[in-house]
Every structure is written in C-alpha cells, then in structure tokens.
Amino acid sequence: MQGAEAIGNAEVIFVGSPNWLKTFAPPVRSFLRTVDLDGKTIIPFCTHGGGGFGRMIEDYKRECEHSIIKDGIALKGDYSFDELKAWLDHNL
Ligand SMILES: Cc1cc2nc3c(=O)[nH]c(=O)nc-3n(C[C@H](O)[C@H](O)[C@H](O)COP(=O)(O)O)c2cc1C
C-alpha cells in the first residue's frame, strides 16, 4: 500500500482530527488501525468546540499501544494562527 510505505520511513507523525463525540473522527481510527505505527512517535492535534482532546489521548494510547504518544495540541475551532505558531516555536 502506497500510504503505508510512505509512513514506514517517518519516525514522527502528526495525526490530526476534529474532536467528534470526545474522540477522533472514524477515518482517523481507520488510519490508526490500517497503518503500522509501532515504534513511531505520534503528535496528536485536534480542533474542538470546547472539549479539548476529550478522551482522544487515551484512545490514541489504546489504538497505538506500541507508539509514543506526545502531548500535542488541542485548538478551539476559532483558534488564531499565533496560538499555533507559539506552540510550534516552543515544541519543535
Ligand atoms: C458530529 C460532531 C461531534 C462533535 N463532538 C464534539 C465533542 O464531543 N467535543 C467538542 O469539543 N467538540 C465537538 N464537535 C465540534 C468539532 O470538534 C468542531 O466543530 C471542529 O473541531 C471544528 O473544525 P471543523 O471546522 O473542521 O468542523 C463535534 C462536531 C461534530 C460535527
């Protein structure tokens, strides 16, 4: 599978989703179950309507128990680019 091949060479993967019903959207769950992310570092990011990550981080840890899940960033739907840039500057 072409997608899986491309992921194969990456050590750090940003995975993003809107918060839907306190967790990631179903296509993201399919992605996590389809692609081999063992040993990879996952940096989650999400947009939300007020609930932050909800239980998304726990769900990442359950779906990807052999990956390293970093704190990542949860941004409210009306976030400013400055907020994102400050996080990127501080964390990367
Ligand atoms: C089906 C659905 C479920 C949602 N559930 C939540 C939720 O549990 N918690 C929350 O904070 N926001 C929730 N939201 C709000 C979305 O996270 C928010 O609208 C989205 O992140 C903004 O990105 P968008 O412009 O791509 O929709 C939900 C939105 C939809 C459509």
TrEMBL record:
Give one Pfam hit by family name: Flavodoxin_4
The family database entries (Gene3D superfamilies) matched by this protein are listed as: 3.40.50.360
Which parts of the sequence belong to the Flavodoxin-like domain?
8-90
Q: Which InterPro entries match?
A: Flavodoxin/NO_synth, Flavoprotein-like_sf
Any one GO molecular function term: oxidoreductase activity, acting on NAD(P)H
Q: Which domain of life is it from?
A: Bacteria
Name of the molecule in the record: Flavodoxin-like domain-containing protein
Q: Which organism is it from?
A: Shuttleworthella satelles DSM 14600
